[in-house]
Amino acid sequence: MHDQALERLTRIGIDLSAEHDVDRLLEQILEEARALTSAEAATLYQVDTDAGLLHFKILQNERLGTRMAGKKGRASALPSVPLSPENVSGYVALACEPVNIADVYEAEGFDFSGPREYDRLTGYRCRSMLVLPIQNHEEEVIGVLQLINARRGREIVDFSRESVQLARALASQAGIALTNAHLIQDLKSLLEGLIEVMADAIDEKSAHTAGHIRRVTQLSAFLAEAVNACEDGLFDRRAFTQAELEELRIAGLLHDIGKIVIPEHVVDKATKLECIYDRIHEIRTRFSVIRRGVEIRALERKLAATGNGVGTAEIAVIEEERREALSELESDLSFLENINPGGESMAPDRIERLHRIAARSYRDDQGCEQPYLTENEVRNLSIPRGTLLPEELARIRAHAATSVRLLSRIPFPRKLRNVPRIAGDHHEALDGSGYPFGKTAGELPLQSRILAVADIFDALTASDRPYKKAYPLDEAYRILRSEAAGGRLDERLVELFIGSGVAHRLAEAAG
Ligand SMILES: [Fe+2]
Ligand SMILES: [Fe+2]
């Protein structure tokens, strides 16, 4: 091999290894192969062992001025070829050895009806042909390279021995480059697949937050785009790179991953008494037992009074007492049912009434004294706002720290290395009042602030807790602005979010 050719091959090797887009790589391989062997035309097929076919990928024909590519999902320009030894490409793929033919119209042993049909349709004349296998790192044939019509000046000649040598060297470089590109693409798809699965798992964990993850990711992307489009220097002409936007997208998809380890009955605790099921039903049953006790006692008293020959006045008193006791029971039960959903705050008079009810007792079937309400029920029903006990709230809040902990264990590629940090910052506030770390403005990059705005907005407009109503848009904007004025959210981002109609874009995207 000449020094010149060797130098050229080395350069090609470097160029090919720099290209990671498979389609562009294939184009480049074909171009280089044609240039090295002075071939007028070239075709590349991809081996599909499962289907027993060679799929057409690209064709370049300099004389006809054609460049065709077989795109995914579209009918290919050239049909697929059976992976069988009758046709030359099939043979090369199966035998894993090159075939050099002087004239396809005179050669025997292979079915050349395909090239001839191509000639008939295009008016081309296919003569010399060099067909080579391309192997991957596991020495499997992944592609077949067909070089057609070697030229010497204006003349079409056979492919020389040197051409065969050069083309083989190139095919082996192409194999390595293609393997690398495929491995990189496979890794990307694998990571993307895992991220999607995790995002769906978080969304499906709670019926109340269904769709939250996707919406927050979209809202963050729109807000980041609005920052990029901002020309007034508000963000010091900060423009997110493609890699940064991708990092933000993945952080959005994974920001609530920590919720996976929180039990459903805490994440979804819809009422104060809920604990896998809503214990208000136990109280209802207990109250019906108490009611029955009241009825029985009244009847027993009436019976005794009648036996003693007591007058109707006494019976009326017993009846009145029975009615009062029942109506008090009914009113107490409906009070408990009212405070259970946690929609209204517990004023001191309500707490007092709760304790009054809890202090009462009744006798069960065994004649044992039982309180109207257990200690745990009283504790839960006393929750001043919402349905969560302090430890349950802490458990839910811990999801942000859990997100950081879980995500930090994923070896993200370098350009995605900030994913755990951005994801973990979504409940932090600029004034240090957020969680889990109480970070302050200087520690919160723009991406983290974007995610925080998107997360709060969605929580407001989509009702993230069962007892919380979803706010209308203008009310949500008002709350965002007050959060910004209070120094918790980035004011510039909140104004940009509202001003650039990020929420409307989301609504349009959702159709
Ligand atoms: Fe969260
Ligand atoms: Fe969230």
Q: What topology does this entry show?
A:
Blueprint: H1 3-18, H2 22-37, E1 39-48, E2 53-61, E3 66-69, E4 81-82, H3 88-95, E5 99-101, H4 113-122, E6 129-135, E7 141-152, E8 155-157, H5 161-205, H6 212-229, H7 242-254, H8 264-267, E9 274-275, E10 277-278, H9 280-307, H10 312-339, H11 348-359, E11 361-363, E12 369-371, H12 375-381, H13 390-408, H14 419-424, H15 446-462, H16 473-485, H17 491-499, H18 502-510
Antiparallel strand pairs: 1-2, 1-7, 2-3, 2-4, 5-6, 6-7, 7-8, 9-10, 11-12
Helix pairs in contact: 1-5, 2-5, 6-7, 6-15, 6-18, 9-10, 15-16, 16-17
This protein binds fe (ii) ion (2 copies).
Main features:
two-stranded antiparallel ribbon; binds fe (ii) ion; about 55% helix; eight-stranded antiparallel β-sheet; about 10% strand; 18 helices; about 500 residues; alpha+beta
Low-confidence stretches: none
Tell me about the biggest sheet? 8 strands, antiparallel
Bound ligands: fe (ii) ion
Strand fraction equals: 5-15%
| Secondary structure tally, helices | 18
Please summarize what this structure is.
By secondary structure, this protein is of the alpha+beta class. 54% of the residues lie in helices and 12% in strands. It contains 18 helices and 12 strands.
Structure in words:
- The mean pLDDT is 90.
- Strand 1 and strand 2 (53-61) form a beta hairpin.
- It is built from 18 helices and 12 strands.
- The longest helix has 45 residues, at 161-205.
- The strands form 3 sheets. Strands 1, 2, 3, 4, 5, 6, 7 and 8 form an 8-stranded antiparallel β-sheet that branches.
- 54% of the residues lie in helices and 12% in strands.
- It is elongated.
- The protein has helices at 3-18, 22-37, 88-95, 113-122, 161-205, 212-229, 242-254, 264-267, 280-307, 312-339, 348-359, 375-381, 390-408, 419-424, 446-462, 473-485, 491-499, 502-510, and strands at residues 39-48, 53-61, 66-69, 81-82, 99-101, 129-135, 141-152, 155-157, 274-275, 277-278, 361-363, 369-371.
- The protein is α+β, with helices and mostly antiparallel strands.
- The structure holds fe (ii) ion (2 copies).
- One fe (ii) ion binds next to helix 13.
- One fe (ii) ion is lined by residues 256, 399-400, 426-427, 455.
